[in-house]
Specification:
By secondary structure, the protein is mainly α. The chain has two helices and no strands. The chain has a domain of 31 residues. Helices cover 46% and strands 0% of the residues. The protein is elongated.
Length: 50
């Protein structure tokens, strides 16, 4: 069994936000890319809270 409190504290330590990305934040990024983000080219765009 996974200790979720420990797992979340590990996420907090390793991400600049100090928390996992919220689903709405992830959706907003995807929406921007789908609706014509022509200024974003040739890049890896992590959408995971890091």
């Amino acid at each position: 069994m996974v200790d979720e409190g420990y797992a979340m504290s590990e996420v907090a330590v390793r991400t600049p936000l100090g928390r996992p990305a919220d689903p709405d934040e992830t959706a907003a990024t995807i929406e921007r890319l789908l609706l014509g983000a022509t200024d974003v080219t040739g890049t890896c765009l992590p959408v995971d809270g890091t």
